[in-house]
Amino acid sequence: MSHHDDPATTGTAVPLDHHSMYANIFTFAGLPLSRDLADDSVDAVVFGVPYDLGTSGRPGARSGPAGVRQASANLRWEECRWPWNFALGDKLSAIDYGDVIFAGGDSEDMLAQVQATASAIVAAGKTPVAIGGDHFATLPLLRGAVEHHGKLALIHFDAHTDTYDEDEKYNHGCMFHRAPKEGLLDPSRSVQVGIRTEYERDDHEYLVLDAHTVNGQSVETTIAAIRERVGDTPAYLTFDIDCLDPAFAPGTGTPVIGGLSSSQALRILEGIADLNIVAFDVMEISPAYDHAQITSLAGATLALQFLYMRASRG
User: Fold this and answer.
1) pTM of whole model > 0.85?
2) CA 37 distance to own-chain centroid
3) Residue 174 falls inside a structural domain
4) Which amino acids are annotated as binding site for Mn(2+), given as ranges?
5) Is residue 78 included in any domain, yes or no?
6) Binding site residues, as ranges?
């Protein structure tokens, strides 16, 4: 059959071209769309959390998962993503689960549905890779992962510590204040990278590698500090896109200048790929404030980096 034939008239099924950069952009990087968590061949599950009711600044991160999927088409052609020396599909099988479904405007339902989804993915022996969505959604993602892994270390890339003792029940700046109190995280094994906004320094439990420090030292020094802090503790890696300087990620709710470059972030992640990271997320992507898909492409590239990190551990 020539590719001008219409499958609707020929009755012949035509496989989608997963390498196209513009056609049939339904899933992240062309991964199969599936909710079959019983498939033992699947190693990792990408899914979206289209939520932004916890946002304190510019809204719009509910569109983050859709924006990242669209931008991920730019990554589909390269089977062996540079600088990795293997094709992802040779070492890892992943699916796109779609977005978590919850009642619009109902933060309690979001919390319940996201926790249940993360728990089901981890219980099935797969690594979750979540795309958001405002950072408040990391709280139920953590809850779901901890159900099966126990208390975790946190590797947190951000401009903000998100350890604020806010009065609001739903706020994207409170998760890492609440998580240790719930027994989800061990701050003594946790690290926050790229911080460049105020926090209570005198009683802060997490190791902070602030943006000035990270930008003033070698990538290798930052990698060594993260590795020493986390050790072999099972860890949750969360990446707020505003860790990157707005030059590299303008499409976010609370941009802060003076951040990391996208190159720094990718090299740091490559250097900690062999740590025992059990779950990942990339958050706070707000396409309405983006330019030329810069931020969505950064988010898509980070999510793909997570998959390569997972694949590199075998």
Assistant:
1) yes
2) 20
3) yes
4) 135, 158, 160, 162, 240, 242
5) yes
6) 135, 158, 160, 162, 240, 242
